[in-house]
Amino acid sequence: MKGTGASPGIALGKALVIENEPLVVEKKEIESTEKEKSRFLEALEKSKEQLKKVREKALKEMGQEKAAIFEAHLMILEDPELIQSTTKKIEDEGLNGEYAFKEITTQFVSIFEAMDNEYMKERAADIRDVSDRVLRNLMDQPIIDLSILDEEVILIAHDLTPSDTATMNKEKVLGFLTNIGGRTSHTAIMARSLEIPAVVGLKDITEKVNTSDFIVLNGETGEVMINPDEEEIQKYKTMKEKYEHEKKELESLKDQPSITPDGRKVELAGNIGTPKDIDGLLKNDAEGVGLYRTEFIYMDRDSMPTEDEQFEAYKEVLESLNPKPIVIRTLDIGGDKELPYLHIDKEMNPFLGYRAIRLCLKEQEIFKTQLRALLRASIYGKLKIMFPMISSLEELLEAKKILNEVKKDLDKEGIEYSKDIEVGMMIEVPSAAIISDILAKHVDFFSIGTNDLIQYTTAVDRMNEKIHYLYNPFNPAVLRLIKMVIDNGHKEGIWVGMCGEMAGDKRMIPILLGMGLDEFSMSPISILPARKLIRSLKHEDMKKVAENVLSMGSAEEIESYLEEIFD
Ligand code: PEP
Ligand code: MG
Fold first, then answer.
1. Could you tell me which residues come within 8 angstroms of residue 265 by beta carbon, excluding any fewer than 6 positions away?
2. Please, which pLDDT band fits residue 209 given cuts at 50, 70 and 90?
3. Residues with beta carbon inside 6 Å of ligand 1?
4. 539 is a catalytic site residue
5. Any idea what DSSP says for residue 469?
6. Which residue out of 158, 186, 360, 539 is catalytically annotated?
């Protein structure tokens, strides 16, 4: 069978089919609508308590990002529309609690499933997951617990819910196979971060497999075999050995410089969202942090984080990686990252709206609190401060002015901070790239944010699946802007990095190296493969490659040229 490879690696082992007992929800005679309403509200409360525990466990074992999924589930449970529609249905139609709730959540699920956007479609699974829990609680049915597994297994399920992956005993799970899901589904994300091989979107794998069948799977290609013959098993065993050998080989690159055979040395750094990501950085030998997205400190909560809370988070990252350089980006909220408690009016084009540095320059208390926390933490390591979304010289100068004011405040209060903090900016808006010769005179570094630079340069919303084919990092306009920024930075003697996804893309690294990029910042898991690649490429040759690429007029031409010379 073939599905979508969701998390790389090869697994061989016995299947455990998780049959989430299908729930039969029936219409029943009721005593009173009042009683049904309170049964329903009690089940909501019970589910909340359970989910809070699951969230705690996830937070401890998998970090804030994973725990946030359960925060989202708790929010679904608190959704007034969901609650009120259910109680109203009980009242108006005299229904039993479970029947009314099932009807309402089914409506919600079908609305999400009908959406064009792949990401929103996947959220239907979250609602189903939450609804299943509430229904089981209403009907006094057990909730399946994967934390107790006696032997090593490959889990086979329609879908693994986030609660399943959070509570499961990971030591015993060799792989996952699911009927549904795509690359952005939670199951896939979880599997990658747990480094467990997985294939998703297999349609009817739960029908085809019985518990104790022997399974082999390739999480890269999406191939799965049920009860294969001895020859196939041997083939997969060999593949597994090869995969693990390659992974081991990468280990030998730890502590090695990221340098080309002809002596061009670059820095390979990691992108992180929380101090919980420090382990991944250390494990993958990051040479620093090229982007710490601080918005996660502000998200998943009901109020602004205090100066002290922020200080603790920044200090933890700086201290544990000292003396490695840590680029911390100031608040980049807005666009796809909302803060409900900020109460910003709905905008027609949030990505072009009141966000990031624009918001910080207006709501200066928020900005100053963060800058104070950053400066106070600076004595614990090598801090570099970076401003996001700068689109003009005025904005940059204003942000720097506020930073200096905060420094003066600290001086007055006798609070210590490091005196040699580099200050840089992201280049993610075309206007900034175009005047980068001027901006370079006012900063210590640039970091190119290609995730946004691509969307703003090509006018392609990075979240819109329908026009995703236009969102192409090989677009020559984007590549020319990048080259321009690197050259302008170098003319002023500053270093230029990149923290957009492109920096970790194997097909892109040769070109970026040839263009002279100094620092590449990526998800930690991509660092060692990138180092291996860089150590195999001659800088002089890559300069030529970059030059050729920059003379081409279409992404297609560039991609086929690269295939030709590298495959
Ligand atoms: C970028 O835009 O490339 C970037 C790194 O920032 P974010 O993905 O957080 O917008
Ligand atoms: Mg960005």
1. 257, 258, 259
2. very high
3. 291, 293, 332, 428, 449-452, 499-500
4. no
5. G
6. 186
Check if 360 is active-site: no
The per-residue DSSP string of 76-141 comes to: HHH-HHHHHHHHHHHHHHT--HHHHHHHHHHHHHHHHHT-S-HHHHHHHHHHHHHHHHHHHHHTT-
| Residue 95: pLDDT over 90 | yes
Instruction: Give pLDDT tens digits for 335-356.
Output: 777 787 888 888 889 899 999 9
pTM of the model: 0.70
- 266 and 258 in contact (C-beta within 8 Å)? yes
Q: Which of 111, 138, 165 is the last residue of a domain?
A: 138
- Ligand 1 atom with least separation from CA of 291: 5
The predicted-structure confidence for 433-469, as pLDDT tens digits, reads as follows: 999 999 999 999 999 999 899 999 999 987 776 787 8
**Pocket-testing residue among 358, 426, 453, ligand 1, by greatest number of atoms within 8 A of Cβ:** 426
Q: Which CATH number goes with the domain that contains 325? A: 3.20.20.60
CA–centroid distance, residue 271 to ligand 1 (Å): 10
Looking at the fold, whether 174 and 298 belong to one and the same domain comes out as no
Q: Which domain holds residue 459?
A: 259-566
Same domain? 311 vs 222: no
Q: Is residue 25 part of a domain?
A: no
CA of 111 to the centre of ligand 2 (A): 30
